[in-house]
Specification:
- The chain is mainly α.
- It has a domain at about 10-40.
- The chain has three helices and no strands.
- The chain starts with 11 loop residues before the first helix and ends in a 5-residue tail after the last helix.
């Protein structure tokens, strides 16, 4: 609860701050170490994504004509990527 002299509005610097000290009185070295740890954790990102499955429709080999094979179901297989 704010007293009569304390303002509940934040300054622009406080709104822009990455973190804020709520309790204690850290010195400059401790704040620098904390800043370095937070910045390193933020820059690390998440786990790497798994590679996407290849798109066979845009593969260059799909532009080549496959040999025609006669037989049962051949017309269905003619439109599928190889």
């Amino acid at each position: 609860m704010a007293g009569p002299q304390e303002s509940t509005e934040q300054t622009p610097e406080q709104r822009r701050a990455l973190f804020r000290v709520v309790r204690g009185n850290p010195d400059d070295h401790e704040l620098a170490a904390l800043t370095a740890v937070v910045a390193a954790a933020a820059g690390a990102g998440g786990p790497e994504r798994a590679p996407a499955a290849p798109d066979l429709w845009s593969h260059p080999a799909s532009q080549l004509r496959a040999p025609l094979v006669a037989g049962r179901g051949a017309w269905r297989a003619s439109g599928l990527p190889r």
